[in-house]
Amino acid sequence: MKVFSSSCTFDxxxxxxxxxxxxxxxxxxxxxxxxxxxxxxxxxxxxxxGILRTExxxxxxxxxxxxxxxxxxxxxxxxxxxxxxxxxxxKRVTMTSTNxxxxxxxxxxxxxxxxxxxxxxxxxxxxxxKDGKTHFKQEAKITALCGGWQKIRTKIEEAxxxxxxxxxxxxxxxxxxxxxxxxxxxxxxxxxxxxRA
Length: 197
What we know:
Layout: E1 2-10, H1 14-20, E2 35-45, E3 52-61, H2 66-72, E4 77-87, E5 92-99, E6 106-116, E7 134-144, H3 150-196
Antiparallel strand pairs: 1-7, 2-3, 3-4, 4-5, 5-6, 6-7
């Protein structure tokens, strides 16, 4: 098993990030053109905690080499199962996704967490501008399940981690665009509403 992990801080409030997260695969994100469809399978709110739980199926086009498709079967379409929770009290979004396609060859389990970047409690180093930021953590555990030599499994896992890293960087860039557009569009709408009032 190989692990990919990354983290960063978005210069947007938790409220902005948790709302824009549902638009991550919209036309504003030119880095997510591989996403064909996002289908919501279930959505519920726990009445005692207020936690929103959503289960989605994400359909993507992939660029697997033709020889891999010929050797292992499959198609250029893949599916990912995602379960997310949004906790409005702790200001935390957690998403866990697992590949459904090719899962007999390669298992990928990704966990993403968005949390409000806590303000400093030390008044001498308080940074007011940090109060509106959101911390992002991402971890993917990648395991090649194909039989055979350990060397082959290791190479598959290493190549998968490298590809995952490239996709993660592009994903963050695309999400930054979605955040920027969301802030602008919602700001314009608030301005229009204030002018009408």
